[in-house]
Write a structure and sequence with these properties.
This protein is an alpha/beta fold. It has 14 helices and ten strands. The chain folds into two domains: 128 residues, no CATH class; 191 residues, TIM Barrel (Alpha-Beta Barrel), CATH 3.20.20.
């Protein structure tokens, strides 16, 4: 049973408590921003959620190491697939190029002016090409810095919403209690970021948009579940509004990034297309798109059919599937708000083996082995 109304309001009152930080605040912040793994976290990092005793060819082109060392990920993959004879695995951190053996990758935020929207591109290249990738590296660094600033914008709008945001919050009918609680937690995070000096340390990579919701999961643990759901709904709505106001000049265009990637003989894949459907109509120079991703799992057959139709008039596009594993959900599952992420695993994309999906892939001239072989040839 949750606390009474008066107790909840008293605990998260904003009459000044948000301007002081408790030891519990610092402890929660440290848990969420620490980049050095504990012994238990190292064990969790190298221990897979699932294992496949039969698969010999590993295919994983969309996963996020975050702050987990690559050596631990190598062990994790080998333990997940003990009979693997070949491993085609490329990390795709958000706006940070990372390497795993002979291949490197990144999930790049870019802007598409045709449809006035931010999209993502997965970029995969040989690691020996990085010596010539100064421009691409610079592009990603610029985007990474902007995404860090976006968190500060979100915190500002939650704590001190401008007039337009106030109107939006009022229109959506959010409860005054939730507004006060959101202001309370956002003010705490703002203060923690300022006083910790984290922006000048390796921990800066932890300043992601989800930091506020993850902090609420820890420090708001005593909230009644219904109240916490309302609070998180408000915060996520404000995050969405802030993102909708993004300045396209802060991002490189999809064409600019594609041009730099192609100059390095990189492969390019559109991840989770349902998050930005219109881009499939654009004539982007890509190698294919994900027909399945755990964040957008309901359109696999349709996306395969789209590939088939496009394949008749364009350079052959390939069908990909991305497990989209985020390692934070593996080593600190109790401290992140995305509980579904814990179900994902590097290299596991079950629909490849679903009968209906296999039939659609065959009809479209697509398949897991074909994509692996042809894509590897394209970027080698």
């Amino acid at each position: 049973m949750g606390k009474s109304d008066n107790e909840n309001l008293a605990e998260y009152d904003t009459s000044g408590a948000e301007n002081s930080l408790s030891q519990e605040d610092w402890d929660a912040f440290k848990l969420l921003t620490e980049v050095i793994l504990s012994p238990d976290e190292k064990i969790a990092a190298e221990t897979p959620t699932y294992t496949d005793e039969e698969e010999e060819r590993i295919f994983a082109l969309h996963f996020h190491p975050e702050w987990v060392p690559m050596e631990l990920l190598k062990r994790r993959i080998k333990r997940a697939f003990p009979k693997a004879k070949s491993i085609f695995a490329i990390p795709t951190q958000h706006n940070v190029i990372m390497s795993l053996g002979q291949f490197s990758g990144v999930e790049a935020d870019v802007f598409n002016y045709s449809y006035n929207m931010k999209i993502q591109l997965l970029i995969h290249l040989k690691s020996d090409k990085l010596k010539d990738a100064h421009t691409l590296q610079s592009m990603m660094e610029k985007t990474f810095r902007y995404r860090g600033l976006q968190l500060l914008d979100i915190l500002e709008q939650v704590a001190f919403p401008d007039e337009d945001m106030k109107k939006e919050i009022k229109k959506m009918g959010f409860h005054e209690e939730s507004i006060k609680q959101a202001r309370f937690f956002a003010s705490k995070i703002k203060l923690l970021v300022e006083e910790s000096g984290i922006t000048q340390t390796p921990g800066a990579e932890m300043l992601k948009n989800r930091l506020l919701t993850d902090f609420i999961e820890i420090r708001g643990a005593t909230l009644d579940p219904i109240r916490k759901d309302r609070l998180l709904s408000l915060v996520n709505h404000i995050k969405k509004m802030v993102k909708s106001r993004l300045n396209p000049k802060r991002f490189h265009t999809d064409q600019e990034v594609i041009e730099e990637a192609r100059a390095l003989n990189a492969g390019i894949v559109i991840p989770h297309p349902p998050q930005f459907w219109p881009v499939l109509l654009d004539d982007l120079d890509v190698d294919g798109w994900e027909v399945w991703n755990p964040s957008t799992p309901k359109h696999t057959i349709f996306l395969i059919q789209c590939l088939k139709r496009r394949g008749k008039i364009k350079r052959p596009l390939l069908a990909f599937m991305g497990d989209d594993t985020h390692m934070s959900s593996k080593i600190r599952p109790d401290m992140v708000s995305d509980k579904d992420g814990a179900k994902r695993e590097i290299g596991f994309q079950p629909p490849w083996k679903h009968q209906e999906v296999q039939a659609a892939l065959k009809d479209a001239g697509q398949g897991r082995d074909r994509t692996m072989d042809e894509y590897l040839a394209r970027i080698s």
